[in-house]
Amino acid sequence: MFKYSSIRKALVAAMLIPNAALAGQYVVELDSPFDALSPELLQQKGVSVDETLSAGADSYVVITAVDEAAVRDLMNSLSMTPEKISEVLFINSPTVSGGQPADAEPREGHQVYVIERPIPGVGFFGLEKKQKISAGSNAAIAKLGDVIEWDHSYLTGEGTYCVYRADNPDTLREHGALAGAPIGKITPVKQVAN
Question: What domain count does the chain have?
Fold first, then answer.
């Protein structure tokens, strides 16, 4: 499961990617599954795959690369056309506002979901506002109980890709209403952290 801090990811990227100090993370939306790649190809392309969130026709992959052009180069070499590539500006989680991190594995009966939230500019918000968002999510989870758990969220300039675990999509919608967070697309996925 995804348990690396941003600092750990940066250190791993620095070891694997040339010019990693200049690297960033990108969420790539795909219309097909993303298969594991050979370490040789990743090194050749100068990228690392941090997490895959596969759902068949609706899949996501999080890639660390020097820039978006490197991500596009990788996709071209795989003959894949991304639906969208979004630069990650911040990774939010329950711990940003002092909450407890998600369990190492999903709870019994939980499915992993990606929730796209259309919040223009959210990745550029100040830390205080990001902490408020985190606290709001944590408060909604406290009201709902063990039927939902927040793993982490990738904040971009256009919105968020939130990774939650829940008993069903209706719980996610109820959480969004309680937290005051808009809900876009909800996709059940298989989560693999690399």
Answer: 2
Which of 57, 88, 119 is the C-terminal boundary of a domain? 88
Whole-angstrom distance, CA of residue 125 vs CA of residue 137: 16
The residue count of the chain comes to 194
How many distinct helices (H) and strands (E) make up the chain?
Answer: 5, 9
- 79 shares a domain with 106: no
Which residue is listed with tokens 């999509």? 169
- To the nearest 10 degrees (0 to 180), the angle between helices 169-179 and 127-144 is 130
Phi, psi (degrees; rounded to nearest 5) at 142: -60, -35
In 71-184, DSSP assigns E strands to 84-88, 90-92, 111-117, 148-155, 160-166
Phi, then psi, of 127 in degrees rounded to 5: -60, -40
Q: Is the pLDDT reported for residue 3 higher than 90?
A: no
Q: pTM here?
A: 0.88
Integer Cα distance of 184 and 191 in angstroms? 19
Please, what is the average pLDDT of the chain?
Answer: 90
Instruction: Answer with the one of 42, 59, 88 that is the final residue of a domain.
Output: 88
Q: Is 15 a residue whose pLDDT tops 70?
A: no
Domain extent for 112: 90-189
pLDDT of residue 54: 93
Contact 118, 159 (CB under 8 A): yes
Residue at token pair 């990788």: 74
Phi, psi of 5 (to 5 degrees): -80, 165
